[in-house]
Inverse folding.
């Protein structure tokens, strides 16, 4: 006999423990747990003269948890409509050990009562181990204090690592260093792109409200918007399939390309002084990418997403939701997806990566210009795409000339003296490693610009501050600065290049560039 309530218990014939019942009738508290419930007996309805007693076994406490789908609504005694509306649940999540606990009792009771599961989707989490793959234990001293992570790397970095480090069902290693690496690889990359946009948008007073329609778009703009809409579609599909790991990794891949290709290849569009259609298109495109990323990232990194959204949206568009967490999730416009352009730029990026590998193999830094790069293609279609994008490859690899070769010209990139080669999946990239005196001087000029830009940062100059640059060096340094004066002035915002001892107010450093000593000074113009 299973007694369902105190009222039912009171109705049983031959009920003992009358003091408990009287106490309840008088409004007093009654304890139906052991040992008090052991006092209660009543007559058996099927066996004459026998008493019904409490079973000595204790029901597994997981039964209560397994009954949650009905217990939360007090079903079937009430809330039948609510129960029918919300059962079975859309989603449930717990760690793998609950396959023997909560998951099991939920499934067993639901099957017994309703002949169906009580949830439609499940994510079963693997356990978190220490950095060496060992189970965390206080006795071993390998437990990571979560507050240490939250106070140093932040909640978003912790969330991002846990979501993207491995699929949900896998065990994962965990440490402060692993969270820091995830923070550096994704959140800092994203923040650098965001900071780049904010810095130059403030300098140029960019206002997205003034852009009714961008009529000019470069190939880069069309490519990144194509990738963005493809990203929205793929992230939406992954999340609807309860796969946050794939969704997060796809976002990270897009941010890498946004930073290392779109922004990198578009820098001069933002840097140039004139505000033409090309510059406006660059600002508008990057603004759209960042606002969309904030909305995409809201479920993953809520604090970073909100910070970006608050700075980018409400002040310009007060009619928009006041928080990113109240905004609609982005919807993909697949009409903007250009698969051919995506394929062409993916190949250009691959060629650039191989070219950098060839430089590295030869020990030649990217700031040193070279005469030529030869690229072995695999088809005429690839040839056409690379030919159109050759200027991007040329600038990325800092070479004077890009020559494309058909597949049957392998001998022109392999085993040639004075050339460094990198190959991958039948693609070959060879760079001419011979450095003429003219190329060497240009390399010194680029290195000088790099040193001066670093000095500007150390001197805490604003990115838009104009300066005077002072220099003292030998004949080689003088020749380089004289020959590349226009380039150096433009790149460092130097009004003048002054040979001689820097003024006292100037920030000064000594440098050695390819064996040549030089003293450099920078002074901000008022």
């Amino acid at each position: 006999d299973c007694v369902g309530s105190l009222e039912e218990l009171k109705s049983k014939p031959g009920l003992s423990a009358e003091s408990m019942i009287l106490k309840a009738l008088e409004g007093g508290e009654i304890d139906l747990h052991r040992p008090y419930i052991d006092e209660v007996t009543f007559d058996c309805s099927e066996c004459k003269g026998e008493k019904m007693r409490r079973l000595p076994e204790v029901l597994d406490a997981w039964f209560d948890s397994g009954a949650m789908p009905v217990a939360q609504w007090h079903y079937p005694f009430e809330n039948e409509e609510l129960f029918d509306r919300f059962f079975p649940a859309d989603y449930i999540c717990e760690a793998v050990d609950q396959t023997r606990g909560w998951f099991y009792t939920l499934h067993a009771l639901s099957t017994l009562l309703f002949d169906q599961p009580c949830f439609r989707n499940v994510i079963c989490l693997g356990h978190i181990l220490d950095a060496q793959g060992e189970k965390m234990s206080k006795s071993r001293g390998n437990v990571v204090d979560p507050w240490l992570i939250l106070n140093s790397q932040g909640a978003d970095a912790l969330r991002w690592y846990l979501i993207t480090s491995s699929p949900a069902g896998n065990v994962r290693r965990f440490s402060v260093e692993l969270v820091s690496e995830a923070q550096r690889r994704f959140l800092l990359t994203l923040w650098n792109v965001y900071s780049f946009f904010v810095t130059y948008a403030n300098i140029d007073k960019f206002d997205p409200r003034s852009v009714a329609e961008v009529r000019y778009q470069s190939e880069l703009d069309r490519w990144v918007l194509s990738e963005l809409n493809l990203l929205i579609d793929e992230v939406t599909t992954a999340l609807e399939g309860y796969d946050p790991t794939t969704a997060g990794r796809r976002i990270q891949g897009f941010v890498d390309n946004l930073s290392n290709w779109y922004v990198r290849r578009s820098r001069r569009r933002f840097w140039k002084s004139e505000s033409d259609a090309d510059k406006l298109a660059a600002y508008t495109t990057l603004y759209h990418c960042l606002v969309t990323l904030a909305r995409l990232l809201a479920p993953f990194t809520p604090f970073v997403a909100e910070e970006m959204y608050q700075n980018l949206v409400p002040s310009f568009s007060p009619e928009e939701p006041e928080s990113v967490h109240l905004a609609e999730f982005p919807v993909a416009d697949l009409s903007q997806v250009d698969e051919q352009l995506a394929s062409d730029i993916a190949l250009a990026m691959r060629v650039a990566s191989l070219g950098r590998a060839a430089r590295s193999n030869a020990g030649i830094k990217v700031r040193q210009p070279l005469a030529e790069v030869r690229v072995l293609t695999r088809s005429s279609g690839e040839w056409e795409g690379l030919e159109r994008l050759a200027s991007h490859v040329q600038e990325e690899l800092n070479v004077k000339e890009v020559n494309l070769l058909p597949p049957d010209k392998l001998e022109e990139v392999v085993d040639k003296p004075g050339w460094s080669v990198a190959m991958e999946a039948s693609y070959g990239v060879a760079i001419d490693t011979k450095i003429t005196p003219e190329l060497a001087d240009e390399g010194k000029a680029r290195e000088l610009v790099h040193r001066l830009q670093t000095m500007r940062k150390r001197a805490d100059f604003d990115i838009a501050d104009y300066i005077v640059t002072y220099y003292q060096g030998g004949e080689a340094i003088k020749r380089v600065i004289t020959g590349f004066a226009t380039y150096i002035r433009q790149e460092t915002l130097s009004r003048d290049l002054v040979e001689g001892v820097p003024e006292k107010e100037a920030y000064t450093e000594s440098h050695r560039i390819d064996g040549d000593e030089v003293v450099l000074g920078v002074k901000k113009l008022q």
Remarks:
- Residues 176-204 form the longest helix (29 residues).
- The chain has five domains: 6-52, 62-125, 180-337, 340-433, 438-524.
